[in-house]
Design brief:
By secondary structure, this protein is α/β, with parallel strands linked by helices. It contains 15 helices and 14 strands. The longest helix has 22 residues.
Length: about 400
């Protein structure tokens, strides 16, 4: 049909030029980095925090190019070869093209009857659900081939005992250890669409806080449904456990796990109730200083553990903060996540200009805690208990 005689135009519609991420400023150029769900944070993180947004379309360009014309877009031939070899696209396959035409003319993110049939569900049948970002998604009734696009999602899938359905994850999915043996589809922020397509998943699960909106659109255009999680609090993490359980036919396991985690949260809250709330600075990165904002699950962990973040009035999830502002607020405690590439010691901070003038540094109340605290997964409750013990050791 049409695409059969115009393969270049079909390619242009299928995968817009530059959608691999080339139009976006990289998050970091330094060899040292802190990874939040596999996304590297640096001095660009405060600029990027509103770019990774599934509901909005704000984007940061590295050039001042004018708006691109969709009719002039082309993609690289390897993508089309991957689609052809996987059996998703064949010349004359008008039924699949019809779904793409509807998607293109009426916009991404809508529920299109039959769009999920580009990659058939192994379990048979589909259902329409609302994911945690508010998107309507047509998913398999019984998913059998899942790709995870964030470490926290991979951890939760393993915690639910559904790892046999996981056909791939990201380069940063390192827990449990078995997750490192799975095929990888690349980085969290910019996974390879070609690799995902070649694996023929019937469902992809992503994170609104870590994955780009463009990737959702690209997957939808080739008929791969993507269910999105959004975790901005401890309660959201518990909800994600239950939602994934409902999605992956593991309701009993999810209910038991979420209930157990909820009991541990309540136990911490009872233990710290009525205690003084130390003022705390959470340092995601220290040169320049990147911390946590008001709408961040780490801030919620600190509050529930009986502390008060000195940056809880800052907008965004990972905002920058000046040392002058920190000196003015004088935190009682400083927390930093451990990292293989992030190893300043207390002695290092005592030598750093500005930092050495902080009371928390002078008194030695600088603590390195597990980097689990920056992953919105079941182990986040381990971090909640760890922070509570640091802030209120006598309440044990």
């Amino acid at each position: 049909m049409f695409a059969r005689h115009n393969p270049d135009l079909f390619e242009a519609w299928l995968h817009p030029k530059g959608s691999s991420g080339a139009d976006y400023t990289p998050l970091i150029s330094n060899s040292q980095a802190i990874f939040i769900e596999g996304v590297r944070l640096s001095d660009e993180s405060s600029l990027m925090q509103n770019q990774i947004n599934w509901q909005g379309h704000t984007r940061m360009r590295t050039t001042n190019r004018p708006a691109r014309n969709i009719g002039a877009r082309r993609i690289s031939s390897p993508v089309l070869r991957a689609l052809r070899s996987s059996g998703i696209w064949r010349p004359g396959c008008w039924t699949r093209l019809r779904g793409l035409f509807v998607l293109l003319f009426f916009g991404p993110g809508i529920a299109v009857p039959g769009i999920a049939s580009a990659i058939p569900a192994v379990g048979g049948g589909t259902r329409t659900v609302i994911d945690e970002t508010g998107r309507k998604v047509v998913v398999p009734a019984h998913p059998q081939r899942i790709v995870s696009l964030a470490p926290s999602i991979t951890e939760t899938i393993y915690a639910l005992g559904q790892q046999d359905k996981l056909v791939a994850d990201t380069d940063y999915c390192d827990y449990p250890a078995a997750a490192t043996e799975k095929p990888h589809v690349g980085a969290v922020l910019n996974p390879s669409i070609e690799r995902i397509v070649a694996l023929k998943p019937d469902l992809v699960i992503g994170s609104a806080e870590a994955n780009r909106r463009e990737m959702i659109d690209q997957l939808a255009q080739v008929g791969i449904p993507l269910y999105g999680l959004s975790d901005k609090s401890v309660d959201d993490v518990l909800k994600s456990v239950r939602d994934l359980g409902a999605l992956l036919d593991s309701d009993p396991q999810a209910t038991a796990l979420a209930s157990s985690l909820e009991q541990r949260v309540q136990a911490v809250e009872r233990r710290v109730a009525g205690q003084p709330q130390p003022r705390l600075l959470f340092v995601t990165w220290y040169q320049p200083l990147i911390t946590i904002g008001a709408h961040n699950f780490v801030e919620d962990v600190i509050r529930r553990a009986g502390g008060q973040s000195i940056s809880n009035d800052l907008p965004g999830e990972w905002p920058r903060m000046s040392l002058e502002a920190v000196l003015a607020r004088q935190p009682d405690v400083i927390l930093l996540p451990k990292s293989h590439t992030y190893t300043p010691s207390l002695d290092d901070f005592k030598r750093l200009q500005g930092w050495r003038d902080l009371n928390a540094v002078k008194s030695g109340r600088v603590y390195f805690i597990s980097d689990t605290i920056v992953r919105p997964c079941p182990r986040l409750i381990d971090s909640l208990e760890e922070v509570a013990t640091i802030l209120h050791p006598k309440s044990e």
